[in-house]
Amino acid sequence: MLLLGYAYSAGDKESLSNCLPTNAVRLKSILFCVLAGSLSVYIYYNRTHLLPSLTMASAPSTWKSRAHAHPSPSTYSPTYASLALLAMRDMPAIQNSLTLAVFTDKVAITASGEVVVLSSEDYDAIMSLAEQAKALPLSDSFAHTWRVKHPMTCRPIDRVRLGTPGAVDMHQFAVYGYDSVKKELEKPVGDITHLPGELSELMELVLEGRANLKENKINAEIVEKVKSIVPQAA
Fold first, then answer.
1. 0.70 exceeded by the pTM?
2. Which of 39, 44, 103, 196 is at 20 to 30 A from 217, Cα to Cα?
3. 152 vs 173, which has greater pLDDT?
């Protein structure tokens, strides 16, 4: 036994010493995987608290799924004075198509003529983005249009009006060819070469008013109510 022990220690001592670091590395790798997996699980189940950027306050683009149906949509009477946001779309085949109207009483009317009531949190988040959009410079192109660069023309134009408390005139701008991916502008607005982030966020929530739109299921009477309150020159 002593001879065997000596032979092992003398003959394999170097091999054993070379093996120890490899085992240590493997142990570290296993521990890292276990810790990383545990951290991933923790973040997943606590993502609402750990990732506030995913909450409604900063990402209101799912407002439609949280809105409640108005108790009496057919009798709701929109007014220009209470109009906080109005978005209309011009397309080659259809002009002046309603996308979304939001009023100061937190009522929203979608492209299909659906009348819903926004949560206070969603309404405040939408209005916060609207205020940020107002602070942006105005494009010097026709109707203050931000023109997104595309290889082909004939893209939709989304015209947006934003109300200001106590003011008669609304802040107006338009976006030509809005795209959730393409952001480069045909020509800069001042020193801005790409559609600003706050404007993109606003367009995303505005266009949610057209989600699942079906032409044969539009409540034309309610849509016309909205159009009728806007002065022709506005």
1. yes
2. 103
3. 173
